[in-house]
Every structure is written in structure tokens, then in C-alpha cells.
What we know:
- The structure is a homodimer.
- By secondary structure, chain A is α/β, with parallel strands linked by helices.
- Chain A has two domains: 14-158 and 268-349, Alpha/Beta hydrolase fold, catalytic domain (Rossmann fold); 163-257, Rna Polymerase Sigma Factor, Chain: A, CATH 1.10.1740.110.
- Helices cover 36% and strands 13% of the residues of chain A.
- Chain A contains eleven helices and nine strands.
- Chain A has helices at residues 104-117, 131-142, 161-176, 192-206, 209-215, 236-249, 254-266, 277-281, 302-314, 332-335, 337-349; strands at 14-17, 27-31, 56-57, 62-63, 68-72, 123-129, 147-153, 288-294, 318-324.
- A seven-stranded mixed sheet of chain A has the order 1-5-2-6-7-8-9, sandwiched between helices. Chain A has a two-stranded parallel sheet with strand order 3-4.
- In chain A, strand 8, helix 9 (302-314) and strand 9 form a beta-alpha-beta unit.
- In chain A, helix 1 packs across helix 2 (131-142), helix 3 runs antiparallel to helix 7 and helix 4 (192-206) packs across helix 6.
- Chain A starts with 13 loop residues before the first strand and ends with a helix.
- At the A-B interface, helix 3, helix 4, helix 5, helix 6 and helix 7 of A face helix 3, helix 4, helix 5, helix 6 and helix 7 of B.
- Chains A, B: Pathway: Amino-acid biosynthesis; L-cysteine biosynthesis; L-cysteine from L-serine: step 1/2.
- Chains A, B: The active site is at 130 (nucleophile), 297, 330.
- Chains A, B: GO terms for molecular function: homoserine O-acetyltransferase activity; L-serine O-succinyltransferase activity.
- Chains A, B: Its EC number is 2.3.1.-.
Amino acid sequence: MKRGGELRGARLAYETWGTPSAARDNAVLILTGLSPGAHAASNAEDPSPGWWEGIVGPGKAIDTDRFFVVCVNSLGSCKGSTGPASIDPATGEPYRLDFPELTLEDVGNAAYELARGLGIERLACLVGCSMGGMSALGYMLHHPGSVRAHVSISTAPQAQPFAIAIRSLQREAIRLDPNWNEGRYDDAHYPEMGMHIARKLGVITYRSAIEWSGRFGRIRLEPDKREEDPFGAEFQIESYLQGHARRFARSFDPNCYLYLSRASDWFDVAEYGHGSIAEGMRRIRLERALVIGVETDILFPLQQQEQIAMGLREAGAEVDFVALDSPQGHDAFLVDIERFGAAIGAFMAKL
Amino acid sequence: MKRGGELRGARLAYETWGTPSAARDNAVLILTGLSPGAHAASNAEDPSPGWWEGIVGPGKAIDTDRFFVVCVNSLGSCKGSTGPASIDPATGEPYRLDFPELTLEDVGNAAYELARGLGIERLACLVGCSMGGMSALGYMLHHPGSVRAHVSISTAPQAQPFAIAIRSLQREAIRLDPNWNEGRYDDAHYPEMGMHIARKLGVITYRSAIEWSGRFGRIRLEPDKREEDPFGAEFQIESYLQGHARRFARSFDPNCYLYLSRASDWFDVAEYGHGSIAEGMRRIRLERALVIGVETDILFPLQQQEQIAMGLREAGAEVDFVALDSPQGHDAFLVDIERFGAAIGAFMAKL
């Protein structure tokens, strides 16, 4: 692994849609944000809707009638791939904090091995959203020429201090929870409080003030839905955050969260270019790319998408840059299917 | 008090600079943000620099050679005025959560009584920064005609859901700290962890991503200044936040923080206008006003300053609206003394 550790017998969870062509030149690989698993869309084995159901499917923007689509759960995650919550075969116990230091380049390299394992020499398109966009840059930096086209969505060529501050505080909330216990929690003693705070802070930065002003305004909860506590939730926005936190806290492993969060802070294309993002980006070999950013995204601001677009252009790729005015901030790619579907579909149709 | 409680024998801490005119028509009253005390600037009794040292003083933007300047510590705070940390004369114990429900109108009304107590019938100017800007609106709504001119800085005519979400999460971090203990902490069992998280989240929203990118970038701490902890601070931005949290955690009372934070969420000029901010604002009687906002402020966005300016204009005041491009976000009024001093000084010179 990039920082020196090693994993033996690591596994990756992935799902596929569509059929590989004889030449295996129609593969689209999707790298995800921090929390989703490989279930991007419904399929025969799992008919439940996936996290990108509106984008991936027959006749959709990422058209599974045309492409052989693969979505992989990140190395270090807890949705089937090997991560800190997995059993270490050497000890029979979960890795926990003995899991080696993880970088997004490791996540990208693991995904590259998956593609090779599936007999794919060169991807028709590598798609990366949010953290997955950084993993995708890592993939392409380490394997130049292995990707023909790239879709980069709401991501960053390097972690900037505002995003680092947010993630550091999320990690701190988890680590300060006495139940975290240096990573040795169990279901009965679980850092639920820390995960709640981390998730709420995440949701606050994933959406936008303008969306919430329109959607929640100052609407209050019905009196019978308020807590007795004098400082308990009173406004709808508070119970919206509470719902998100409740759904997330037990469905994502806290140690995996810490590892992937820290990996995001570490990511920096400039490491590949003697301190220059533009120079680092020049190592990437692509034919064409689509770079999408959202004007209301405060976590991965538009300016960082412009840096990626310029860098790929200077590296010789033909780049479409699309700035969307979706009100939903960073999360727009998950919810503003109309705008994102149109942009991605138009690009994919040209491949 | 607005929500029905009452306080007996409440005190307000205040400081003054300059000399009242014979007619007592040269008074400037400053209402502060959530955390500062009454020490806005150095004076004979306390020569240490105040929180607005660059703005208040002889020949400065708020010229103490011309004006009799008063700064008051908010009711409900812990810097000398009566608040949840004060002793309840009825029990001899701190009020803690028995302190009555506090609103920013109560903070404004208390400040109005202070002015009356100082023999001031009508303020030459009422200045409100951040939370103090909301308290000032409360003051003017409840006492129309008691203020000649007004300076409104980086505040809001009503709390919007993004700000409510941030403050709700800050309160939750404090309340979830086992040492908070329903408000019954002491120095030995103090909700330090909760206060740290609350303050860091505050600082994140008080500044701007653009300032931090320029100031901290991805600069790392010297190896000998890093923590041993695998998830400990590694970047300068993390130790900057840690320094802020350390300085704040023990210097501001957690229960006072909860009361003032909740009061900010409750504030809404529309309550005075049958649901309309503009109609509520029309109850304010002013000759002139200066409304200042900062383009990089994410907590009290420029749009809310425009609402205040428009409202005061429709209420018949002559309004100067200034949008500053300070990079420091919400905190700019505390640090960008050059831009703020020029704007405030130009306005005060016309009074």
C-alpha cells in the first residue's frame, strides 16, 4: 500500500450491469463517495433501488444496454470490501486500528486490480463521484493509459483546509465518544453519539443553505413531535438532521469512517507534480473527460472542479466542463437526477 | 421576559468611553456577538485591548472624542451580566437551567433599560454585530423612536435553517457531553469535550474557505508538534482550530452558550409583521442606517443583510448598504479593521 502497509487476501465487493463486449472495451467503472456500497442500481440479484438508480440502467445516462457497468465498494469501506471492520486472517479478529494506513490511491489501485481481474485492459470510462473522484484521479495517476474517458463529479485535486477542518471535526466527534474506545467498540458499546454528530455535520456540508431556506424555512415541528428537553429539536431542520443521523449511525462502521475520512485529507495530486497540481495532472493520459461541479457545493467548491478540468485539458484530454446550478450542494449528484442525467448522458453518448 | 419568565435583581455589565454631552444626545450603544463581553476597547479602568480595539477609540471609526460610547454584556451571558451561571438570589445557587427562557428581545430590552438608566432618552446610534445585530433589531422593534441611527453588521432578520442547523449541532455536542449533566457541571466535571466541538464548528462557520486556503493551504505541523494518536492533528488548520477551542472552552459558560444560541434560533422579525419580515421591519423608526455584510459570510449571508437594508429603507430610514469582499467571512468585522473602519467611520462622520 502507498504508505507501506500490506493486506493479504483482501476482497472487493462489486456489482455489474449490462454485458461486456467481446473486446471488453465497453466497461464503465464507478468509484463511489465515502458511504455508498456497490449497489448503484437495482439488478437481478438485488432488485432494491441503488444509490444512483436514476443514472445507471437501460436507456439511462449510463446506459447498461450499451456499457458493461461495474460499481465497486471502496477498499477500506464496510459494505463487503475489506476494511478495518473485516476479520484479519492473521489473528481471526477485526483489524480495527491495526488496518494499515489507507490512501485513496490504494482505493484506486484496488479498483484497477478488479478491472484487470474482470479481463478489462482499458476502461471505456472511469466515473468518480465525491471521494470516488479523488480515488479515480489516484487510479489514473498510477495507471496512465488504462482509461479512455473519465467523468469527474464534485471532487477535488487535493483536500483544502475547509474540507480538512470539517472532516477532522467529524473524526474528533467519533474519537471523543467514550464508546469509541480506541476503535474497540461493539454493538452494545457503540460510539453512537460521535457518529450522530459526524453525520449531522456531514449532512450540513453536503447540502446548501439556499436549498434548506426554501425547503424548511422556519417551519416548526408539531408540538407532539417535540422533545420534552428544553434544548430538544423544535424546528423541522433539526429533525431532518436527526433522521439522517439515526439512519447512518449503525449502518456505517466508525473505524472505516475514520480511515476513509483521513484518506480524503491526505489526497493531493500535487504530490505527483513536485508540489504543482497542474504538473501532477499532466501524468494522466485520457482521450476525453467530463468534469461536473455544482455552484452551491461548499465542501468541494466549483473552483476545484475548474482546476481538474484545466489540468486534464493541459494533459491533452478533450474536456467538457459543466457547472450546474443545482440547489442541493455537494449531494446534488445523488438527487438532482435531471441535471446530472442530462450532462452525463450527453457525454456518454459521444463515447 | 418575552416568553413569560421573570428575573429579579438582574444586573448588566457595561463599559463606557468618552463623555456624554449635556443633552445626552451623543450616545452610541454597542450590542455584541454571542461571546464577547463589554470590554470593546481599552480604557482607564482596563487598559488591556478590547475586542473592537481598532474601531472604538479617540479619532477611530467610532470616535470616543465625539461620542459617549457604551458597550454592554448581553443579558444571559457570563461576562458580568446576569445569566444562567449567576447566583439566583431566591436560592443562593446558580440558576443553571432554571434561568428563564431567554430571547434576543430580552437582551435588547435589558440594553434599553441600561440606556434609560444612564439618562439617555434617545441613542445617537445603536450598533449591533452578529447576534448583537438581532438584539438591536429587538431593541428597536420594542422601543420605536428610541434610536436615531443604526449600524447593522453581519446579522439576520430571522434565523434561517442553515444557521439553526449549525447552532443546534453545537448545542447537541455540549448536551451530549456526559459532563454537561443537564447543566449541573462544575470545574472538576466540565463539558470540555462538548465545548471544544461547539467552538470548532463555530470557528469553521465564522471564517471562510477562501481565507483558509490562502492562509493554511495544506501546510503540515512539524513532526514534533504532531500527536502520537494515528488520527491526531497533522495539518496546521487542525491545530488552529484546537487553539481556538482551548482558549474558549473554559472562558465561556456552557449553559450561557446554550441559552444565547437558542435565543438566536428563535429570533424572527416576521413575528412582528404577521409573518412578513418587511412588514415587521416597518415598525422600526430610524433616521438613518448603515447595513454592512460580507460576501464570504456563510452563517449570516449577504442576502440577509440586503433584507435588513430593504426593510429599514421601506420603514423610512435613509440606508447605506455596504457589501464588503473581506475574505474572513462572518468574523471579518473583528479582523478586517481596514474595510470595516472605513465603512463605519464614513457613516458615523455624517451623524
